[in-house]
Specification:
heterodimer; A: alpha/beta; Rossmann fold; 8-stranded mixed sheet; 12 helices; 8 strands; 13% strand; B: alpha/beta; 2 domains; 7-stranded mixed sheet; 6-stranded mixed sheet; 40% helix; 19% strand
């Protein structure tokens, strides 16, 4: 079914206002968009992290669907348990309300997904549970104070890999988790951003419709950790796509499709300039780091083009 | 109730006990010596004898996490592990208890690493003794089976709603063929009853939030309400055990007494070693030595007053721990029993024995009894002693 803004906005908002997300947070926006598409028949699991903390401070909850948080690294395993319980209770006629299908969505930040939760995620995907795992990737451990993760891009300043007089922020490139998920040969894997609402909603709809596990990696520009004005989070998300830093693509049953190919890709330096976390890269002597970033992005993009060509065959 | 006499290993016996509850979900990850239990269970499922959905996870951490998810969704759920597997679960073991989820788990006791060792001691269970689970210990396959059947009733009692761990000694019980009486499936299920959830994530019309952030303003109150559950749990263990006794003829209490009534000297012990101790006690009794045994079945909640009453007025008490508390004053059982005995003038000393599956033999029991005799006669032995080790 084609995603339509008019119907989407008429759906029930399942994440209430009044949660404690920062001003300018794009994460709560991601959750709301997902839930507008998923609807009420959904159980949500949250890994420890920003979005879990800001939505469920006892005695309050922002969730209008059932929600479970257990720990940092185990959201995928926890939701795999919920999903299995659903199948078993259904089979035995023991559900509180008999129904054919429910949605099971686990979400975690990049720390809870790329790093500490990758084993639990990999296991759940391999086992084939009927669940969607969403990573909201803000490229560092924002909830604990902006520490570097394996999703942090080269050169970014974080509290554990700061820019100083000797070191210039993170010294490694980011890990490509989306492709690791593709390697699980699950029916649906995608990347998107909250700016591309239609793309996001379509991907959530597809992910929830497949029989088996699905994974969506969503870039979540973070005003606090990336150091940009609270008003421009969505612009940052859009430009991440226009620079090919964060391509919009999906992999359905192994077939790659790039959903948006920028007519003219913008230089990565333009995007970095708007974020305080990269400020030091523009100092004289650090030109090579900007070049290295650009080369990495261009080489990843050309790989992606080849993968699309190869798999569309 | 007529019951079949069967020959099974402890692992097989517990697999049957779990199957008889018709659980909705089981999560499992292999670790010796627990593996055979889940092999047996997987066979039940493969042959259609059980309709349990199994989640074959990639680690014990995920086994407990999936069990938490399943139980929070309102499904009857169990898992099993040993040693390092339990240690890996540890974070989520606390969460299962805090969320008041009635998960049952077989903990096939095995030494913790390092060095790595696959044989029996109680360091795994003792490492998790403050996590909020009910800990039941078993002397043999019969007791492991009985504890496992009862574990559902205890965990799922609406006044309890806490996870229960059925402990039985790795290899000694888990892999040894033993004769035991098993309830017929129908009778076991009638005793256990159909599962009723206290809450579920799956009721779309009544959504709930489980596991929120709980700060300085509420966390303590929540822990206080959890603390209150353990007194209830102890009552329920007693009640369920009595009911089970009426059904099967096998009665259980918090502890088993063996030749305790008139005993001047008492050994306190857990698990399979009790059988060895009983044998030697018989020999000493034949010689007129008034020695008896108190075998602790329920270690958590710790029945402090009950144990203090049983040991009151004795001339000497020896507490045997199959685990060490590194840097502590004796093993965990010793410190608990000694604390329970505070204010009483009963001489009490402790032993650490059997680490990493070191055989607990007749000679070691005799050593303990000789020491008890010495203390009872006004002599002294060290507070904490090691048994069966080359020094």
């Amino acid at each position: 079914m084609a995603v339509n803004l008019k119907t989407l906005t008429q759906n029930e908002d399942l994440l209430s206002g009044g949660h404690r997300a920062c001003a300018g947070c794009t994460g709560s926006n991601i959750l709301r968009q997902i839930m507008l598409t998923a609807g009420k028949d959904t159980v949500v699991g949250g890994a420890t992290g920003c979005m879990e903390v800001v939505t469920t401070i006892f005695p309050y909850t922002a969730w209008r669907t059932s929600f479970i948080h257990s720990a940092f690294e185990n959201c995928a395993a926890t939701i795999s348990g919920v999903e299995t319980a659903f199948r078993s209770l259904k089979k035995h006629g023991d559900l509180p309300v008999q129904r054919e299908k429910m949605n099971f969505i686990a979400f975690g930040g990049d720390g809870g997904t790329y790093d500490i939760g990758i084993q639990s995620l990999s296991g759940a995907m391999e086992r084939g549970h009927n669940m969607l795992y969403v990573c909201y990737d803000n490229e560092a451990y924002m909830n604990t104070g902006i520490q570097r993760s394996s999703a942090t891009p080269l050169g970014a300043h974080t509290s554990t890999a700061p820019a100083g007089s000797v070191k210039q922020g993170k010294e490694q490139n980011r890990k490509d988790l989306t492709r690791i998920m593709v390697a699980h040969n699950i029916p649906y894997v995608a990347q998107t951003t909250p700016y591309h609402w239609k793309d996001l909603a379509t991907k959530v709809e597809k992910a929830l419709a497949v029989d088996g596990p699905a994974f969506i990696n969503i870039l979540m520009p973070c005003t606090v950790g990336w150091h940009f004005d609270t008003a421009i989070g969505m612009d940052i998300a859009r430009e991440a796509v226009e620079t090919n830093f964060w391509p919009l693509f999906e992999v359905e049953n192994g077939v790659y499709k790039i959903n948006h190919k920028p007519k003219e890709r913008l230089p990565i330096a333009d995007w970095m300039k708007k974020q305080g976390r990269f400020k030091h890269l523009f100092k004289p002597g650090n030109e090579h780091l900007l070049e290295r970033s650009q080369q990495h992005i261009d080489s990843e993009w050309s790989k992606l083009l080849k993968l699309e060509e190869m798999t569309q065959g | 109730m007529e019951q079949k006499l069967v020959a099974l290993s402890g692992n097989e016996a517990v697999a049957y006990a779990f199957k008889q509850a018709k659980p909705h979900v089981a999560s499992a990850f292999p670790i010796t010596p627990q593996t055979e239990m889940m092999h047996k269970y997987a066979e039940f499922v493969a042959n259609g004898e059980s309709t349990t959905e199994m989640i074959l996870v990639e680690s014990e951490h995920s086994a407990m996490s999936a069990a938490v998810g399943s139980a929070a969704a309102g499904a009857r759920t169990f898992t099993a592990t040993s040693s390092a597997g339990f240690a890996l679960m540890w974070e989520i073991v606390y969460i299962a208890a805090s969320l008041r989820l009635p998960i049952c788990m077989a903990l096939v006791n095995r030494a913790l690493s390092g060095n790595i060792n696959i044989h029996c001691d109680h360091s795994d269970s003792m490492g998790g003794r403050d996590a909020g689970w009910i800990h039941l210990f078993s002397e043999n396959a019969q007791e492991a089976y009985d504890n496992a059947v009862m574990s559902w009733r205890i965990a799922e009692h609406m006044d309890v709603r806490l996870p229960v761990m059925v402990n039985y000694d790795g290899f000694i019980i888990s892999h040894t063929a033993d004769s035991l009486h098993m309830l017929p499936d129908d009778a076991a299920y009638d005793f256990i009853g159909k599962y009723k959830h206290a809450y579920t994530l799956l009721d779309v019309e009544n959504p709930i939030t489980v596991g929120p952030l709980d700060l300085t303003d509420y966390y303590f109150e929540h822990k206080t309400s959890q603390l209150a559950a353990y007194a209830k749990a102890a009552e329920v263990v007693q009640k369920v055990s009595e009911e089970y006794g009426a059904l099967t003829g096998r009665t259980y209490e918090y502890c088993e007494e063996y030749k305790l009534d008139d005993a001047d000297m008492v050994m306190v012990i857990l698990g399979s070693s009790a059988g060895t101790a009983k044998d030697v006690i018989d020999d000493y009794r034949a010689k007129g030595v008034k020695v008896g045994l108190l075998k602790i079945r329920m270690f958590r909640p710790f029945p402090a007053k009950y144990i203090a009453d049983k040991l009151a007025g004795r001339k000497a008490v020896a507490v045997l721990d199959r685990s060490a508390s590194f840097g502590g004053f004796g093993g965990p059982v010793f410190t608990e029993v000694r604390s329970a005995m505070y204010g009483q003038q009963v001489p009490l000393h402790g032993y650490i024995y059997g680490l990493g599956g070191r055989d607990f033999d007749l000679g070691q029991v005799a050593t303990v009894i000789e020491n008890l005799k010495k203390v009872a006669a006004g002599g002294r032995v060290e507070d904490i002693n090691l048994l069966g080790v080359r020094l």
